[in-house]
Each structure stands twice: as structure tokens, then as C-alpha cells.
Design a protein that fits this description.
By secondary structure, this protein is an alpha+beta fold. The protein has nine helices and eight strands. Residues 1-24 form the signal peptide.
Length: 245
């Protein structure tokens, strides 16, 4: 019965896409999910530990989940799951699998709002419009950042094209930006998720070519411009679990 419920939810929450490839690889990343959870008071460590169990489930049972990460804010209260997939079918399979089943049974105790109010409304699925990944960079992934971006009216395509160019800048100039994803949640909502080995790499990235170009063009492309639309939205996390195929 529970599995049927997840298939039902996926029909309404997740957009239809291409069929799952039998040989999905890190070079074929097309879909992503960004799920933000707020831990119940006093349950921050318990929720983080649960996500460690989730990481093992992904490793053991989900070969088509190309990247799966669990992130935690500095105050420990906010935890994020960010994962990527080679197809819509792979994403749907993930959300009808063992992790949602386990989280639905634990959410009342661990997550503010429980499953229906604390998890489901915070599932944000996206198309991956550009990315960089680094082979074998797993154990040294320590820090992640997320930047939500809202395109100005009529600038959605231009912002998407800018982010595609940004991916190339990162590939060419930032070896210590280990993984970088530009994602489109739909309509005018975009985001950047990236992973680093240390704070020096973070600092280098935010002083680098993509940041400089964004600073020049944000007033045209992004609601709020550079200061209020980009810088004010930057969120930093510790990486507590990381799996990459």
C-alpha cells in the first residue's frame, strides 16, 4: 500500500521526462532533486544519522542514482538531500524506493512538520542544465553551497545560457570546485549547487570567473541583482554523506 502511495505521489510531484537509460553514467545527468528538511528540536543528530542510513541504501540498491548527498547547516538544524539522475525514470524509481519509505516512517519524530508538511512540500525537482563533475572526488568532498536564483521576467533563457557558460568556466579554471550543477526548477526558478574540498576552494570559486561574470550581469538577469538576488541567497553546508557513481 505504501509503495502505491509513492507511485501516486510521483505522478503529481515529478515531471515526466525521458526513459531511464540502462547504462546511466556521470556524463548523462539530466534531473536533480533538492530537499530541505528542518530537524525537530533536539533531533538534529538523529536526523543526520538517519541520512547516513539513507546513503547506505542508495549505495546498495540504487545504481541509477548518480550522485546522492546529505548536507547540514552550521547550526545543525537544516539538512538537505541533493541527488542527481540520468533520466526521469531513474528519479521516479528513487522516490518509490526504500529511502522515501523509511523516511515516511521516521519523519514524524525527526522532521518538523512530519512527512506531509515537512518533507513532501520541500521536494524540489529540477532539470540539470549544466554541470561539472570530478572523477573519484568522493572522500574529499567536505563543503557544499546552494545559491537560489530567480530570473527577471523575460530573462529565463538568458540566465540558463549564462549558467551553461559558467559550467565551462568552472571546468576550465577551477579544479578544486569538485562538482558544480546549474539546475532549473521550472518557470523563473534556478539554482547552483557546488561541492568543495575545503574553505580555500570555496573562497577561490567565489572570487573566480563565474562569480565575476555573475556580478557584471546579475542586474540584468536576476531578481534583486548581485547583492540581494545572489549574495544574500548563498547557503553553505557541511557534507555529511556523499555518493557518486
Amino acid at each position: 500500500m505504501l509503495k502505491k502511495l509513492f507511485f501516486y505521489l510521483s505522478g503529481f510531484i515529478f515531471l515526466l521526462g525521458v526513459n531511464m537509460s540502462a547504462n546511466a553514467t556521470a556524463d548523462n545527468q539530466v534531473r536533480a532533486s533538492y530537499i530541505q528538511l528542518t530537524a525537530q528540536s533536539g533531533k538534529e543528530t538523529d536526523l543526520a544519522d538517519f541520512l547516513g542510513v539513507g546513503a547506505q541504501l542508495v549505495s546498495d540498491t540504487e545504481p541509477e542514482t548518480l550522485l546522492w548527498s546529505a548536507l547540514q547547516s552550521q547550526d545543525k538544524k537544516t539538512l538537505v538531500i541533493f541527488d542527481t539522475f540520468g533520466s526521469q525514470a531513474a528519479q521516479d524509481a528513487h522516490f518509490s524506493g526504500k529511502i522515501p519509505e523509511a523516511l515516511s516512517s521516521k519523519a514524524h519524530d525527526l522532521v518538523q512538520g512530519g512527512w506531509n508538511k515537512g518533507v513532501v512540500p520541500n521536494i524540489n525537482n529540477a532539470d540539470i542544465i549544466a554541470f561539472k563533475t570530478t572523477p573519484d572526488a568522493v572522500s574529499n568532498v567536505k563543503i557544499a553551497t546552494f545559491i537560489p536564483l530567480t530570473a527577471k521576467a523575460g530573462q529565463e533563457e538568458n540566465l540558463a545560457n549564462f549558467l551553461k557558460q559558467g559550467a565551462q568556466i568552472v571546468k576550465d579554471n577551477e579544479p578544486d570546485t569538485l562538482h558544480w550543477f546549474a539546475i532549473h526548477f521550472g518557470q523563473n526558478k534556478f539554482g547552483i549547487v557546488d561541492f568543495f574540498p575545503n574553505q580555500a576552494a570555496v573562497d577561490h570559486h567565489f572570487a573566480g570567473g563565474v562569480a565575476q561574470a555573475m556580478q557584471q550581469h546579475a542586474a540584468t538577469l536576476v531578481e534583486g541583482g548581485w547583492e540581494n538576488g545572489v549574495v544574500a541567497g548563498i547557503q553553505a553546508f557541511s557534507v555529511i554523506e556523499f555518493i557518486k557513481r
